[in-house]
Amino acid sequence: MSEGLLALGIEDLGLKLSATNIADLELFLQEMGRWNRVHNLTAIEGEKDSIRLHLIDSIAVLPVLRQFLTGPSPKIADLGSGGGLPAIPIAIVQPEWQLILIEAIRKKTAFLQHVRGKLKLKNIEVLCERVEDAAVHQPAQFDAVISRAFTNLARFLDLSLPFLKPDGLVFAMKAKRADDEMKDVSMKEWRLVADEPLHIPNLAVERRLLVLAPVRKSTLTP
Predict the structure, then answer these.
(1) 131 is in an annotated binding site
(2) 219 in a domain, yes or no?
(3) Better-predicted residue by pLDDT, 31 or 121
(4) Domain span at residue 31?
């Protein structure tokens, strides 16, 4: 995979990636392609589609995440991480961020552990368990929860809530149909903080990143 092909889309995102970042992102996609032939990690095949639909789609959220996650080392949970998207590309570009990848399917967590070692990603942890079980073990521990194509928005928010710190945020990567999914979200329980369009270079597909915060009930008594 050529650096020029990778940079074709990435440079348009304005992320100022280092040569090491690009090399690691290339290696991640190479390993995904190699494992995918045997373990069927993802339905998208081919170098060009992998770059556009996997890697660039995942790191296109970074400008928005950087806007909201301003602490020195935010802790982020990626629910239903699958083949490591968006968490692995984010971890590569943001080594100071801590990412917990939660995935119940063992062959996928085996791949995630493999990539963690191959790329020497010390800022990620892989959990092979159901999201509901992971929430019991790590309640209110995370500054943010993120997911890409895990489940519908209302259910994703329900699953995310136990993980969040009091000021935590949920980042939902969605397509145009997010308007329909938003209709099922209770605005008494959730507040839409931002609805950011995402430009995916060279890809004619609409992407959005919804940022939501739970409406915290006051515990004060009259």
Answers:
(1) yes
(2) no
(3) 121
(4) 3-214
Q: Is 85 annotated to bind ligand?
A: yes
> Could you tell me the two tokens for 108?
């996928």
CB distance 172 to 210 below 8 Å: yes
End-to-end CA distance of the chain: 64
Query: Edge-to-edge strands of the sheet including 75-79?
Result: 124-127, 98-102, 75-79, 142-148, 164-175, 207-214, 190-198
| Residue 204 belongs to a domain | yes
**pLDDT tens digits, 112-167:** 999 999 999 999 999 999 999 999 999 999 999 999 878 899 999 999 999 999 99
d(CA 52, CA 127): 27
**Half-sphere exposure of 30 toward its Cβ, with a 13 Å CA cutoff?**
12
State how far the Cα of 104 lies from the Cα of 109, in Å rounded to an integer.
8
Q: Is residue 222 part of a domain?
A: no
CA distance 22 to 39: 25
Pull the structure tokens for residue 74. 């935010």
Q: Which amino acid is at 121?
A: L
- Cα–Cα distances (Å) from 156 to 110, 132, 170, 219, in that order, read 24, 11, 9, 25
Q: Is 148 labeled as ligand-binding? A: yes
CATH number at residue 31: 3.40.50.150
Can you give the pTM of this predicted structure? 0.90
Q: Which two tokens stand for residue 16?
A: 């100022």
User: Is 99 among the annotated ligand-binding positions?
Assistant: no
**80 annotated to bind ligand:** yes
3-state SS, residue 171: strand
Total number of domains in the chain: 1
Tokens of 134: 């992971």
